[in-house]
Amino acid sequence: MAEIEREAMDVDVVIVGAGPAGLSAAIRLKQLDEDLNVVVLEKGSEVGAHILSGAVLDPVGLDTLLPDWKDKGAPVTSEVTTDRFWMLTEKGGFKIPGWPMPPFMSNHGKSVVSMGQVARWMAEQAEAMGVEIYPGMAASELVLRDDGSVKGVVAGEFGKEAGPGLPSASFPNSPATTPLTDPSSRRTSSDAAMPG
Ligand SMILES: Cc1cc2nc3c(=O)[nH]c(=O)nc-3n(C[C@H](O)[C@H](O)[C@H](O)COP(=O)(O)OP(=O)(O)OC[C@H]3O[C@@H](n4cnc5c(N)ncnc54)[C@H](O)[C@@H]3O)c2cc1C
Known about the structure:
Blueprint (H helix, E strand, L loop, with lengths): L12 E4 L3 H13 L5 E5 L12 E3 L2 H6 L12 E2 L5 E4 L4 E4 L14 E3 L1 H14 L3 E4 L3 E6 L5 E6 L41
Bound molecules: flavin-adenine dinucleotide.
């Protein structure tokens, strides 16, 4: 098959995945150097779309990353006040005393949250700091240097089949193209129909 011409985007840091880890990394990088050009790629249609809907959150990470998270309106409001442990049976259940439980089962001081909402709020904080977030943009391939280290990613490719990633009939006439991180990794083609 002919080689494909891709658009390339040169950035300082590309982060794959706008989950709590990726967004924390993006925010921290901007705190360390506001001039860094940081991009986050998210395969979900929006930030939070692929995040588990509920969680017990220990805010210790937020305290460190964004100490004023309460003032900034973080959706972390339902503090745990009581822990109850139940063994559920087919027809009901029975309560288990809390004292034999290991310390990590105590949720006092933590909050029950929607991680999807927390991720969206973190994305807002990151964007306010200048992070560029691209939802609907899955990274599908690594771009490697000759020494095997990672130089960038291929992203936004649609129309490839699952498994070995072979192009389907619609590829490459797909609706989005490819930001990369390194112009020197462009491939060229005479018949590719990639919108600019
Ligand atoms: C069932 C379950 C219950 C849990 N409950 C709790 C809990 O109560 N409390 C708690 O603290 N933790 C809980 N966790 C753990 C918590 O969900 C994870 O630790 C946390 O989500 C990890 O964050 P992350 O950013 O590393 O990954 P994720 O949250 O998985 O985020 C990864 C993001 O990357 C995106 N992505 C993946 N691949 C690509 C790609 N190729 N290109 C672009 N984007 C991509 C995904 O769409 C997603 O948005 C639970 C986990 C599970 C599975």
